[in-house]
Structure prediction request, 251 residues.
Amino acid sequence: MSTPTVTPQREAAVEHQSDESAEADRPWVTVVWNDPVNLMSYVTHVLMKVFGYPKDKATTLMLDVHHKGRAVVSSGPRERMEGDTATLHGYGLWATIQHDS
Amino acid sequence: MRVRRRAALLRLELAEAESSLLAGLLEDFAVMLADPDPADPVIRRLYPDGYREDEVASAEYRELVERDLRAERSGRLQLCRAELPDGGGRFSLDEEAADRWLRVLNDLRLALGTRLGVSEEDELDGTDPAVNIYHWLSAVQDLLVENVMG
Prediction:
């Protein structure tokens, strides 16, 4: 499953901050969890629709959800993850926000 | 139910029995959504926690989003109910309407699936009419999403 990369510019910026704000800067992710009701086709469609992912990427993420139980579908600031999660909840997906591990 | 793709629209054709079944399901669901019990497993599935293992963050998330999610869900339900041809027949869906129907069908399946205790492993009881309705809704949603995705 792909995880967000830290650019060299961002690495340099983080190094100059205190431990406290570096902690706050730890990226957040939206995780979609497997559930027995949602159709594989529907989950793929939702990932394409909500995130604009091409079909093969959406399918790969959906298969990760299906086979591994969960998948990270987006990453970024906490507020944006809450927005993504709310959108996914509006589509009936089971999604949660957490720190990137 | 039959689906045909024409230009940018989908055209759906529902038999009378299908239309009447859907109308009943939509109406029952609307009644439940109008007065949701937060302890009801269906409501908990429709409005999940935003955070695992963080009650404070989840409460804040819920305070932020649930009201809007509820209003939007009810709004979609109403639009679909209004669009359904009473007695069966044809109706057209543009992309937005198709997306709305997919969501509403999914909500119906989540509600019914939660009530039936659908799991990955166990087979459902094929003699139960509710189970047959659940399978029918799954087929309808699958047919619709395949046509939408292309």
